[in-house]
Amino acid sequence: MYRKIVSFFEEWKASKHRKPLILQGARQVGKTYSILEFGRNHYENVAYFNFETNPKLNETFDENISPDYLIPILSHIAGQTIVREKTLIVFDEIQLCERALTSLKYFFEDAPDYHIIAAGSLLGVAVNRAKYSFPVGRVDLKTLYPMDIQEFMLGLGEEDLLEQIKYCFENDSPMPSALHDAAIQLYRQYLVVGGMPECVIQFAETKDYILVRHTQDTILAGYLNDMSKYNNLNEIKKTRLVYDNITVQLSKKNTRFQYKLIKKGGRASEFENAIEWLTLSGIVSQVYKVEHIKKPLENYRDIDAFKIYVSDLGLLCAKKDLLANDVLYMVEELNDFKGGMTENYVNTQLTSNGYSTYYWESERGAEIDFIIQRDGQNIPIEVKSADNTRAKSLKVYIDTYKPAYAIKLSTKNFGFEDGKKTVPLYATFCI
């Protein structure tokens, strides 16, 4: 399976200012596979160390973390010579060894010719909960997300269709109707399968939604296990309550997160640590409301008003126990959930492309689903789950802030009219 992260790895390897790289992300998004595949294709050898499967590694780092001391021992453990610039050193599940994380600082300062990529599934949680000496400024950081819809289509062999989509996006020209319909169908398949690499591989090989759902249920069970294993005892129940409640929140017309929907009388003080845990683990992301459309948007976010989206659409459908055919044919019974599910999809694609996402509300209740900064401009994005693209809120926003242009995402074909760029949902990856 091709992952776009490989291009980033190649730039990192070639950079004169390269630092040890930490690749973070939720479990099962393909961190280890992507790193090892890159290492096999771009280095003479790969020295792989996993702190979860080989706990004795910790003892080596407890003794001494200077590169001169570590490299001969690591070479012995790996059974191969670690050579500067020719060997890729991989530290997997590095969150389980604080001293290994600290050692990256000394590799950067004293031995920068060694190429190191470290991976951590719950790194944000571990660093936040423990007294880690994080090597700030001494490492490069990158997050790997589940496969986006472009990677999903590539995994299904749809290279030609992707080229057509990119062309139509750049030129605001409609897709031929047969190709548009085919791409809409792929978009709906992506909603069911999601972007977890194991699920995409299974679907590409078998087209068996039941097999994919079994894998998704296994991943969800692993997430619940992590909530128990890597969490404070008194926070476990709250974290699970919040996670279970997200699908309920997305079914509401107003998808702004409401504590009272978790339990009667629920308050921020009771659940904010649980939300932070889920966010740091990469399982969910928070999208804050911005009070003013000014640069930088981050300065104007309302910390008390936010939405929560999950990191993978397939896991969302599995958690909601939705039937594949109900999503593929968008049956009426899903009407309450379609809007939230579509917003969630758009957020995953924008986040995967590196955008920080926000939303906006007027005093009279007009709402724009997403505001992003694209090419130096604050751009509003209106999301519709079907082809109904009448958007009163977008008109209010345009009249108020006069953006360079606006983006309307729906099932309608490509186009551009009155300063609004119409983009089919399957082409969100192009933004």
Walkthrough of the structure:
Residues 18-153 form the AAA domain. Residues 225-385 form the DUF4143 domain. It holds the Pfam family DUF4143. InterPro entries: AAA_14, DUF4143, P-loop_NTPase. This protein is an alpha/beta fold and 431 residues long. It folds into two domains: 5-143, P-loop containing nucleotide triphosphate hydrolases (Rossmann fold, 3-Layer(aba) Sandwich), CATH 3.40.50.300; 149-430, no CATH class. The protein is 46% helix and 17% strand. The chain has 17 helices and 13 strands. The strands form two sheets. Strands 7-6-8-9-10-11-13-12 form an eight-stranded mixed beta sheet, sandwiched between helices. It has a five-stranded parallel beta sheet with strand order 2-3-4-1-5, with helices on both faces. A hairpin with a 2-residue loop joins strand 9 and strand 10. Helix 9 (177-193) crosses helix 14 and helix 11 crosses helix 14 (313-320). The protein is globular and about 65 Å long.
Features:
single chain, about 425 residues, alpha/beta, Rossmann fold, 2 domains, 8-stranded mixed beta sheet, 5-stranded parallel beta sheet, globular
**Distance separating the two termini:** 22 Å
Sheet with the most strands: spatial strand order: 7-6-8-9-10-11-13-12
Work out the oligomeric state of the chains in this entry.
Answer: single chain
Number of domains: 2
Q: How does the major sheet shape up?
A: 8 strands, mixed
Count of helices?
Answer: 17
The total beta strand count reads 13
Helix content: 40-55%
Give the H and E element order.
Answer: HEHEHHEHEHEHHHHHHHEEHHHEEEHEEE
Indicate the mean pLDDT.
94
Provide the gyration radius in Å.
23 Å
Poorly predicted ranges (pLDDT <50, ≥5 residues)? none
Outline: globular
Task: Kindly name the structural category.
Answer: alpha/beta
How large a portion of the residues is in β-strands, by DSSP E?
15-25%
Domain DUF4143: 225-385
Protein name: AAA+ superfamily ATPase
Domain AAA: 18-153
Pfam families: AAA_14, DUF4143
